[in-house]
Amino acid sequence: MMADKGRHAQKSHKGLVVTIIIIILLAGLGAGGYYFRDQVLEVYHIVIGTSSTSNSVKLSEPTVSVSKSTTTVPTTVATDPVTKKAEQLMSKMGQNEKICQLFVVTPEQLTGVDVATVAGDTTKSQLIKYPVGGIVYFKKNNVDDKSFKEMIKKTKSYAKTPLFIMENGDDELFTYSNELKVSDKLTDDSNGKKAVEAFKGGAKVLIMPKNLEKCVGGFAKAVKNGEIDSTAVDSAVVEILKVKINKGIIK
User: Is 144 helix (H, G, I), strand (E, B) or coil?
Assistant: First the structure.
């Protein structure tokens, strides 16, 4: 009889617990607490003895996923604006124009006349055909200051790329020799071989070839057959253009 009373009390106790759990469960569901529901059910199974877990209730912690964003910092190489401008100008030049930029000539070597005292159609057409880097004048070209200045003014206007102008070649063949290495006078070079050797020796500016047409042709042939690397020509032209920019010859 006492045993029956004990079992009855135990059942009553469990029933009370179950009732409380159901009430709590319903309240949790009403609040949308599915996670809470699962924990309550676990407790319920432990209380009524149907859970296979240990007596301690293990609550799982929510897993937080942290995504790591990688920020890529762009790497930029600072370019000197003068160099950039010179490279842009060089990139628009054809091979003949690049080669001709290396040469500084007299107006006679450009036009083929005996003594140049004026600039006209011949000067214009020859500068189109051979767009040299610069022109050097001597006393014989200056019959009077007005005519001399007019000749230089017209010659400058005919050039696609602004020219180095040396007005007094008797004293100084090339004014910018501190910035650019120049060759010796090439007045005995009639086929370009000495111009090629001077360039290979480090000269960026080739001074006064005897025959401009043949020297330009011989130099072009040396580039074509690989004796001179075309990239070396590009580099030399960029250096020439940089000096022209720095000196205000190219605006």
Answer: coil
